[in-house]
């Protein structure tokens, strides 16, 4: 049992003390001994237990000198993990040179053993013990963090260490190890930072040009081969990641000009992740001539590849593929998505759920820790057909008899470490280094090291044909991919590939699987959007501002209301007030019906100064005087209007269009906005709604205010949903 022993304060250090009660002996009682019994052969009532209380001291905060000294005394204080924690995190508050000088010059100089700090180390009775303790620390340093000594071209610290070993531990194994490490670093000096990234375009043969993806060539690669090769590249990069590069205090400084070469191993994994994402987008959009069914087949192939990555426990490429499929330019290919088969859509939905941001990505965290050291993936599918395929593929992996490692999505750990660095202070009272913070950081670093170790279980062979194809792909910029996406979708709209009956069934299927609504039709044209597939039906009208300093947009949008004669047809309403989606999401063209059918087309206001829409305005046609004027952006009509809401701190340039009426109050609008942004609607109390008046003015709404009457109607209807302070 453990008991809190409070704190012990010394000059330059504060220790947490824990009292540990340990059973040291179990003896027979007096009566049992008279009968000749032994303690371990008797029931508990005939035994006597003896306990001993030991004290565990763990340094909580201290000066750099005390923290280095504690490396030599930690085992005596029963703080057995201290050396690993210090070596993994000290770069956040000290340099390799400073720590090495303290360790070797102040504590390792055996000539000073009769006075100074060494004489005060109570746990050491002789120079032999001191030498052994220093050797133990140095050995752990070289084994766990050899990259700390990489200082091209001079390698000053490594040469200093080698000199110390020659004088104090000549001809030792450690001396040989340091010499070999020095030769290794010198041989690698020619490598540049780009050398860490096996997927860099700089690896191409001279004269070879990047090319647009060839769908036929991509289709020739089997799904499991692509997944294995992506995993091979991810494993090679992840094993090279230097854990301390992930520390929040280091990684958060990467954008400074002087730190352009900071944390190259982490940058390499991120480059690989982005390369996979861009490759997915390029293969889907790179060839405009593809038919819709062919493009859908490429999407299906990438979903299958993502599933294979899941079987291989490669969460990095899995997330990269899912992110690409949820990206702005791919998301909006509504007509193409409708041609993707139902089973594959279900598979995609299940894979996407792994990276749900609910409860700080709890699902992916639990799954990662569950499978970190397991031999194979634990696959559960709610869809029977997918489950059968998964188990069959998994059985093939097991039959090979080779264990698998786990490649994580590194961004999760980077986020955790940055959060820790932000939340906890570097120094405590008295200017002492807060080592409790480093213990917390080490909990995350230890997970990275565990997963790196598990990656040694992979047995993958590079396929040069695929790797060469992968490296030679020309990636599209965001502007290029969105432009191609618009062209592809526009071409799809003009090509009636489906009969009205089959189109209606596919519309209902995809809306049920992805959007959670009953009906959705492919919209005509949309501004950019970056939200993942899975929003409400009104998301097709969302827009992302092209410029961060302009709120006014000049794009126009036709809204067509087409009531159908059939009473049970859900398209008969101009807009769904429950979902807050405008009519363009519900009907995209006029349909001939009975004589009572009405059709109205309205031109979206292009700015705050645009006039009201009338029957005589160009682009407006009224088939019946009974037609109601639909709400539009930036104009209050008939007790309703459309506002645009962005999420503060998530993606300020992405807006969600929401319909509000003169009956809506703050909780209703906030809940609708959270749903549109794929956030938990139950968190209404945690947010406040703000209207942007100008660059330096905002209108904050009270808790139960009526948004329609409270808003400023003389400026753009742009709102921000912000977490309450």
Automatic annotation (TrEMBL):
Keywords: Guanine-nucleotide releasing factor. GO terms for molecular function: guanyl-nucleotide exchange factor activity. Coiled coil: none annotated. SUPFAM superfamilies: Ras GEF, Ubiquitin-like. GO terms for cellular component: plasma membrane. The keyword Transcription does not apply. GO terms for biological process: Ras protein signal transduction. Residues 518-625 are annotated as: Disordered. InterPro entries: RA_dom, Ras-like_GEF, Ras-like_Gua-exchang_fac_N, Ras_G-nucl-exch_fac_CS, Ras_GEF_dom_sf, RASGEF_cat_dom, RASGEF_cat_dom_sf, Ubiquitin-like_domsf. Residues 541-551 have a biased composition (Polar residues). Residues 222-491 form the Ras-GEF domain. Residues 55-186 form the N-terminal Ras-GEF domain. Residues 531-540, 580-598, 614-625 have a biased composition (Low complexity). Transmembrane segments: none annotated. Residues 639-725 form the Ras-associating domain. PANTHER family: GUANINE NUCLEOTIDE EXCHANGE FACTOR, RAL GUANINE NUCLEOTIDE DISSOCIATION STIMULATOR-LIKE 1. This is RGL1 protein. It comes from Tyrannus savana (Fork-tailed flycatcher).
């Amino acid at each position: 049992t453990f008991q809190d022993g409070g704190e012990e304060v010394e000059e330059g250090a504060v220790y947490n003390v824990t009292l540990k009660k340990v059973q040291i002996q179990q003896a027979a009682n007096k009566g049992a001994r008279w009968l000749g019994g032994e303690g371990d052969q008797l029931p508990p009532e005939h035994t006597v237990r003896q306990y001993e209380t030991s004290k565990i001291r763990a340094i909580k905060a201290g000066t750099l000198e005390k923290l280095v000294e504690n490396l030599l005394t930690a085992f005596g204080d029963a703080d057995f993990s201290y050396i690993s924690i210090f070596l993994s995190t000290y770069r956040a508050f000290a340099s390799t040179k400073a720590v090495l000088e303290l360790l070797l010059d102040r504590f390792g100089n055996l000539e000073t053993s009769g006075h100074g700090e060494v004489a005060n180390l109570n746990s050491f009775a002789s120079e032999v013990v001191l030498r052994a303790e220093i050797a133990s620390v140095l050995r752990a340093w070289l084994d766990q963090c050899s990259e700390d000594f990489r200082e091209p071209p001079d390698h000053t610290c490594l040469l200093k260490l080698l000199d110390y070993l020659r004088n104090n531990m000549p001809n030792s194994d450690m001396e040989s190890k340091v010499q070999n490490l020095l030769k290794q670093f010198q041989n690698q000096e020619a490598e540049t930072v780009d050398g860490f990234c096996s997927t860099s375009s700089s690896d191409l043969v001279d004269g070879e040009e990047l090319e647009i993806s060839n769908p036929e060539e991509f289709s020739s690669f089997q799904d499991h081969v692509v997944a294995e090769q992506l995993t091979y590249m991810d494993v090679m990069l992840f094993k090279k990641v230097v854990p301390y590069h992930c520390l929040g205090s280091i990684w958060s400084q990467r954008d400074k000009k002087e730190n352009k070469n900071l944390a190259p191993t982490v940058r390499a994994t991120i480059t690989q992740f982005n390369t996979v994402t861009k490759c997915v987008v390029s293969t889907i959009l790179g060839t405009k001539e593809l038919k819709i069914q062919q493009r859908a087949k490429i999407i299906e192939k990438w979903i299958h590849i993502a599933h294979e990555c899941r079987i291989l426990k490669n969460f990095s490429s899995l997330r990269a593929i899912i992110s690409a499929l949820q990206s702005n330019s791919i998301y909006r290919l509504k007509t193409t998505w409708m041609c993707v088969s139902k089973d594959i859509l279900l598979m995609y939905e299940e894979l996407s759920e792994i990276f749900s941001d609910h409860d700080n990505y709890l699902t992916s965290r639990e799954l990662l820790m569950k499978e970190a050291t397991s031999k194979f993936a634990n696959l559960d599918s709610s869809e029977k057909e997918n489950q059968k395929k998964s188990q069959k593929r998994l059985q093939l992996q097991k039959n090979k008899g080779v264990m698998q490692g786990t490649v994580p999505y590194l961004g999760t750990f980077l986020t955790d470490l940055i959060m820790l660095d932000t939340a906890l202070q570097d120094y405590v009272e008295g200017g002492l280094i807060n080592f409790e913070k480093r213990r917390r950081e080490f909990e995350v670093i230890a997970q990275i090291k565990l997963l790196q170790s598990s990656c040694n279980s992979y047995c993958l062979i590079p396929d040069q044909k695929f790797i060469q194809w992968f490296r030679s792909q020309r990636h599209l910029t965001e502007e290029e991919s969105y432009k191609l996406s618009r062209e592809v979708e526009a071409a799809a709209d003009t090509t009636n590939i489906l009969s009205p009956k089959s189109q209606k069934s596919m519309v209902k299927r995809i809306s049920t699987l992805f959007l959670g609504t009953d009906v959705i039709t492919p919209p005509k044209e949309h501004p950019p959007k970056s939200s993942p597939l899975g929003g409400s039906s009104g998301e097709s009208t969302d827009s992302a501002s092209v410029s961060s300093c302009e709120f006014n947009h000049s794009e126009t949008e036709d809204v067509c209301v087409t009531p159908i004669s059939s009473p049970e047809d859900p398209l008969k309403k101009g807009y769904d007030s429950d979902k807050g989606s405008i009519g363009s999401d519900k009907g995209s063209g006029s349909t001939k019906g009975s004589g009572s059918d009405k059709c109205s087309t309205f031109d979206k206001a292009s700015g705050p100064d645009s006039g009201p829409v009338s029957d005589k305005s160009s682009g407006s046609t009224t088939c019946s005087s009974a037609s109601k004027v639909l709400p539009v952006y930036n104009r209050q009509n008939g007790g309703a209007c459309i506002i645009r809401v962005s999420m503060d701190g998530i993606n300020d340039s992405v807006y969600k269009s929401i319909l509000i009426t003169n009956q809506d109050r703050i909780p209703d609008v906030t809940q609708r906005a959270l749903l549109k942004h794929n956030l938990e609607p139950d968190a209404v109390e945690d947010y406040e709604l703000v209207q942007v008046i100008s660059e330096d003015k905002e209108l904050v709404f009270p808790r139960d205010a009526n948004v329609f009457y409270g808003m400023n109607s003389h400026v753009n209807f742009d709102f921000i949903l912000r977490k309450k302070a």
